[in-house]
Design goal:
2 copies of one chain form a homodimer. Helices cover 39% and strands 24% of the residues of chain A. Chain A has 219 residues and is of the alpha+beta class. In chain A, a hairpin with a 2-residue loop joins β10 and β11. At the A-B interface, α3 and α5 of A face α3 and α5 of B. Chain A binds a DNA duplex (30 and 30 nucleotides) through α8.
DNA sequence: ACAAAACAGTTGTATTTACAACAGAAAGAA
DNA sequence: TTCTTTCTGTTGTAAATACAACTGTTTTGT
């Protein structure tokens, strides 16, 4: 478990917690690690979840496919980010989405009940971690709301501009990379890939933006 | 404050907390109440928020208007529900939406820092309330994700069916009321009201559903 | 280096939507 | 009641989208 400390140190969940305490908690919480190859599923729609998960390595896609094979990407999970927490809460319904590895990945599983129940031993950081959990899930909440504002736009162009300008603002610069290829971006914004591609071309011709691969610049 | 006990007793935030303890906490947390008339704003886009809010009476709409006057309704808040918690967390950005009273309403304001910081007096329920806060925000998270699945549908008909069948499932019956009139439902699903109205008519003619006012039945 | 697969852009067509304008029904106010 | 406002459904048209098919490019695996 020790090899994951450099990642965990930087996570929201363990903000303000020292290395030794993290190690102690990993032990106390009986954290489990598991590897996934590119394309494998971490969770499937309909599964019941008891664990809060942290991505220690790689990249995941939280997505959903409907009857007709239309894929909708809810979010990308980057190294160090948490996921699954919304479904791990006691009384939660089952997982509504798939979680798939888009790269070879490693995931750490934390049992929610153990996190929420202060143990008797030296884990005096439990209450801090619970607070961190609250902050983290708050931020995720806001992220979902931002995504809703993109999705509520009517046209492909508006959705693109809403997302890209938000991303520029978030990354604090007008030139930035996005964690999607074209098909993934289309699935994320729920638009047709080819229509989106042509719309991007038009916007480039109009001098609104430029792009190469997954690097965009707003002008 | 005593008059709000019957409402607060049933909230997620105070689940498992007795009446006397709630009263003690209201005092300890220096909770404030405020009334809003129909049409008034509780919060406005861009405001900074330090309080978790509970709607003690009435009904609110969490919404957003863009430059061109297009309104997007994120969610309706019913009596007893919590709101604002995602923006009240320390380090949060400012409010991204408007919160407007759609009926005469009363709101209770709880300072987040006071909730998260266990005080020295008799409020030994603080940790339970923090846990409740986590469960509540988890549920809201799932609600947002469900909304995203509706919004990710491409056509008005699919959005309607996604939302209505979800609502039927949630309420546990095939005949149910929704908290929207037609314009609000259109703003909630981000579609054109008239197109939605005509789509509803077609679906009724096809025998998929029936409706009178805001009561729908799936067949 | 080569073949296969994945990726990105383009175009044409049928479908669907947004928008505007209007009419009747229902709800609310005087 | 009567008048006014809000709400809901309908229709026609211009605009935007989804879908399919295809091309050339890039990436990947062997």
């Amino acid at each position: 478990m020790k090899k994951y400390i450099p990642v965990l140190r930087r996570t929201q969940l363990f903000a303000g917690v020292g290395d030794e305490e993290i190690l102690a908690m990993l032990d106390c919480l009986q954290v489990k690690a598991h590897s996934f190859r590119k394309g494998e599923y971490v969770f499937r729609q309909g599964e019941h979840i008891d664990d809060i998960c942290i991505l220690a390595e790689g990249r995941l896609s939280i997505q959903r496919d409907d009857y007709w094979g239309n894929r909708s990407i809810i979010n990308m999970v980057e190294t160090g980010e948490m996921f699954g927490e919304a479904y791990a809460a006691p009384g939660s319904e089952v997982m509504m989405n798939d979680v798939a590895a888009v790269e070879d990945s490693a995931v750490l599983f934390f049992n929610v009940k153990k996190i929420l129940t202060t143990c008797s031993s030296a884990c005096r950081f439990h209450s801090l971690v619970v607070q961190n959990l609250f902050f983290a899930i708050s931020e995720k909440n806001r992220k979902l709301m931002r995504k809703l504002t993109h999705m509520s736009k009517r046209t492909t162009r508006e959705k693109l501009l809403s997302y890209l300008s938000d991303e520029a603002k978030r990354q604090g610069r007008s030139s930035f990379e996005i964690p999607f290829n074209r098909q993934q971006l289309a699935d994320f914004l729920s638009v047709d890939r080819s229509a989106m591609s042509s719309e991007l071309g038009k916007m480039r011709d109009e001098g609104i933006l430029t792009f190469q691969k997954n690097r965009f610049a707003l002008l």
